[in-house]
């Protein structure tokens, strides 16, 4: 359902249909209110009274790239531990309270953050905030809960990685492309490191990273900004303040020699290629152009790779990817992302010829540029996707929390359309020429077992 701001705008357009259309209609702005509590918790509120629902997101500034060495997968493990209950709200209470009122909740671990989201009727906001504050204060640390979640995470790895064809490609690419441990290690978790974790590790992790100063709470939907600030103070304000943990330096130079690996996937029915290039860091002058370029090259059925190699030359069976595509999107990361492409190809096709064809597509952008129509189509799709996400309170709250946590400014959400619109054909040429080079490329060729040929 459209936001009331949009409804009013459309109504006004209808009433003055006979009048000339203004050349530059005002861009829709997400309403954003921000307050930082004395203990360091940042609270973001976005009012939208179109529906009697509310979305809540709390983002902690810890993810796969920020977890301690020797504890691969610990950020992921801890995401699961957050649902094991507290000394006050025992295991199961969190889910029953939210789902019993018609809501839903979830959590995820990404490279640079861990987020917890809820969607519910607006009347459920206060109990949701109480529950989130309760598990920020303390968890039910017990050997049984730890062992249970160690096994749950291991089973998740078995299902999603080990027993899926090409299931490890999104882990293999960073391991091959990056050199720093923070960027390259298996953040999903090795069984050995997961099994070595003990209660002291869990308690230390919670007291280090799950603190008010390392968190952003965002609420969007049918709420009043002042009332949300008051509820945040009521439930979170008394939690003791702690210093923010230091952030590692995640930036690396571009690679100077192509990395080329061949792996055999016992579960694969057809071969596949996984490609990656190191890209410019978040907020740099080339960031927006990288996002638009990745959309133009591999963003769906109208992209150059799909039209050229899937439908055109029929070398690929399918292709997907993008900037920071493995675990997020083009705006929700810190440090330096990868632009990745994953493509299935026919068993009788040649990987070198596919890569050469891919190089031709990239070179055409780097040397000839793109047409005005193609660039406009790409931007229109990106803007449509951006606004569509913000219509849903839970996704809007999550986007705002991530902007505040990663960019330091929730209102940055309103600058994303400007960044997209500001990209020029020359920007795309420059970025393609600078970053999508063979020396900066990582290639993993996944073969099928010989018996399946």
Widest sheet, order of strands:
1-2-6-3-5-4
Question: What Rg is obtained from the alpha carbons, in whole angstroms?
Answer: 23 Å
Name given to the CATH architecture of the largest domain: 2-Layer Sandwich
CATH fold category name of the largest domain: Cytochrome Bc1 Complex, Chain A, domain 1
Distance between the termini: 50 Å
User: Structural class per helix/strand content?
Assistant: alpha+beta
Q: Would you report the number of β strands?
A: 11
Low-confidence blocks of residues: 1-19
Q: What is the CATH superfamily of the largest domain?
A: Metalloenzyme, LuxS/M16 peptidase-like
Main beta sheet: 6 strands, mixed
Number of domain modules: 2
Counted by DSSP, the helix tally is 17
Q: What proportion of the residues is helical, as a percent range?
A: 40-55%
How do the helices and strands follow one another from N- to C-terminus? HEEEHHEEHHHHHHEHEEHHEEHHHHHE
Instruction: Name the average pLDDT.
Output: 93
Judging from the principal axes of the Cα atoms, what is the shape? globular
Top CATH class of the largest domain: Alpha Beta
Beta-strand level of the residues, as a percent range? 15-25%
């Amino acid at each position: 359902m459209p936001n009331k701001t949009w409804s009013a705008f459309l109504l006004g357009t209808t009433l003055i249909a006979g009048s000339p259309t203004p050349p530059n209609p005002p861009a829709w702005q997400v309403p954003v209110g921000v307050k930082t509590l004395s203990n360091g918790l940042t609270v973001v509120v976005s009012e939208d009274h179109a529906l009697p629902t509310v979305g809540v997101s709390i983002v902690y500034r810890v993810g796969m790239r920020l977890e301690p060495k020797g504890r691969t997968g610990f950020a992921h493990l801890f995401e699961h531990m957050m649902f094991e209950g507290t000394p006050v709200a025992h295991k199961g209470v969190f889910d029953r309270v939210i789902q019993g009122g018609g809501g839903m909740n979830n959590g995820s671990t990404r490279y640079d953050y861990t987020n917890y989201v809820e969607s519910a009727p607006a009347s459920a906001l206060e109990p949701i905030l109480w529950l989130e504050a309760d598990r920020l204060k303390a968890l039910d640390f017990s050997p049984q809960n730890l062992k249970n979640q160690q096994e749950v995470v291991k089973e998740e790895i078995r299902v999603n990685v080990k027993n899926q064809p090409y299931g490890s490609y999104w882990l293999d690419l960073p391991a091959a492309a990056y050199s720093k441990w923070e960027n390259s290690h298996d953040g999903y978790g090795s069984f050995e490191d997961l099994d070595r974790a003990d209660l002291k590790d869990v308690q230390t992790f919670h007291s280090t990273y799950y603190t008010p100063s390392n968190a952003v709470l965002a609420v969007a939907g049918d709420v009043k900004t002042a009332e949300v600030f008051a509820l945040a103070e009521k439930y979170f304000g008394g939690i003791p303040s702690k210093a923010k943990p230091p952030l590692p330096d995640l930036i690396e130079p571009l690679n100077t020699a192509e990395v080329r690996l061949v792996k055999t996937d016992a579960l694969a029915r057809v071969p596949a290629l996984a490609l990656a290039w190191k890209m410019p860091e978040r907020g740099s002058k080339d960031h927006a152009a990288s996002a638009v370029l990745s959309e133009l090259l591999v963003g769906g059925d109208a992209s150059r790779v799909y039209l050229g190699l899937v439908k055109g030359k029929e070398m690929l069976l399918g292709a997907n990817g993008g900037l920071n595509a493995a675990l997020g999107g083009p705006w929700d990361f810190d440090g330096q992302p990868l632009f990745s492409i994953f493509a299935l190809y026919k068993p009788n096709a040649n990987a070198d010829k596919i890569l050469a064809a891919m190089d031709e597509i990239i070179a055409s952008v780097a040397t000839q540029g793109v047409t005005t129509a193609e660039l406009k189509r790409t931007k229109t799709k990106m803007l449509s996707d951006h606004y569509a996400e913000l219509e849903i309170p839970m996704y809007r709250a999550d986007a705002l929390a991530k902007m505040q946590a990663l960019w330091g400014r929730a209102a940055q959400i309103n600058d994303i359309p400007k960044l997209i619109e500001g990209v020029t054909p020359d920007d795309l040429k420059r970025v393609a020429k600078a970053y999508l080079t063979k020396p900066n490329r990582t290639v993993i060729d996944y073969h099928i077992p010989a018996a399946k040929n």
